[in-house]
Structures are given as C-alpha cells and as structure tokens.
Design brief:
This protein is of the alpha+beta class. It contains seven helices and seven strands. It is globular, with a radius of gyration of 15 Å.
C-alpha cells in the first residue's frame, strides 16, 4: 500500500468514499450518522491546498482511504480518516494515521488530536490501541472547544463524543 498527497481531481471520489464508509454506521443502527453528508468539497479543497490531505492507494493508484488534518492550537488535529469498506481490516487507517504522525513530527509538532465516537468499536477503542488517550474536558483547548461546538451544531451528541490526544516525537 502506498500513501501520497491527494490529487485535486480525486476530491469528488474522496467524498464518495466517505459516503461508502458510512455504511458501517448504518450496520450498527447509527443511521443518522450514516446519512450525514460527507464533508463539503470546499473542505477537501482547503485541505488539499494546505497540503494536509493524503490518500492510500491501491496498485492501480486508486484511493482506498484518506486522511485530512488541520492545525489547531499548536497541534495537528485529525479531522477525518476514512477507508472504503471493501478495504477495511487491512491496516490502512492505522497506516494513514502513522503517516500523519510522521508528517507532524517533520513539521515540528508534538501532538495529534482527534474527536470520535466514544462507544463505536472502530472509533475510540481503535484509536486507544494506536496510542491515543482520552483528553479530559478540562484540558480541551479553545480550538478543540470550537470543534466540539461545531460537531454539536452538526447534530452529534456531545455525550457520545470524546477527544483524544497522542504525543508525537519531534524529529
């Protein structure tokens, strides 16, 4: 598997990949989450323009997953990581996150953060296995508080959300 910077002409396909990945939420009864639209094309474009959108690709150079980040309060916040359901279970998500961790270290950042569902098996428990720890509410930075407010406005239950952090070794 290879990871590279996304190409601009792949952005629509990444939106479609995100929609396909939503089927997993439908399978556990979270239809409201499954039916949420993918991030707007403008979000993908902003991440691409900032050089903060990467894809995993198959042997034909077709995206199988993606991750995009944004800089929040001196750290790297993983906004979204998605893997096509046909490709899940092969370590692609883990490899995308490790790629981001290396990028963050090269850029001089020392922390990764993300927000996710507390009780979904491929969310918080998965990230804990990758070295992320829960960030207590009292330690949320202003930028993370803004993200929580945006998620709540989007319709996500804040009681089901958890922020997690992982230290990155600076290079």
């Amino acid at each position: 598997m290879n990871i590279r910077t996304a190409h601009r002409d792949e952005l629509l396909a990444l939106q479609e990949l995100e929609v396909a990945a939503g089927v997993l939420f439908r399978n556990i009864g979270m239809t409201d989450v499954a039916e949420h639209p993918p991030p707007a094309l403008e979000i993908f474009e902003q991440s691409w323009e900032a050089g903060q959108l990467w894809v995993s690709v198959d042997d034909a150079d077709k995206p199988t997953g993606f991750v995009f980040v944004k800089l929040v309060d001196g750290g790297v916040h993983i906004e979204q990581v998605s893997v096509h359901p046909d490709q899940q279970g092969h370590g692609i998500g883990r490899q995308l996150i490790e790629y981001v961790a290396l990028w963050a270290a090269e850029q001089g950042f020392s922390v990764l953060t993300l927000s996710t569902f507390r009780s979904v098996p491929w969310n918080a428990p998965y990230y804990a296995r990758l070295g992320f720890t829960e960030l207590p509410a009292a330690e949320l930075t202003p930028g993370l508080i803004e993200i929580l407010a945006a998620e709540t406005a989007f319709g996500l239950d804040p009681a089901e959300r958890v922020f997690m952090r992982r230290t990155v070794a600076r290079q």
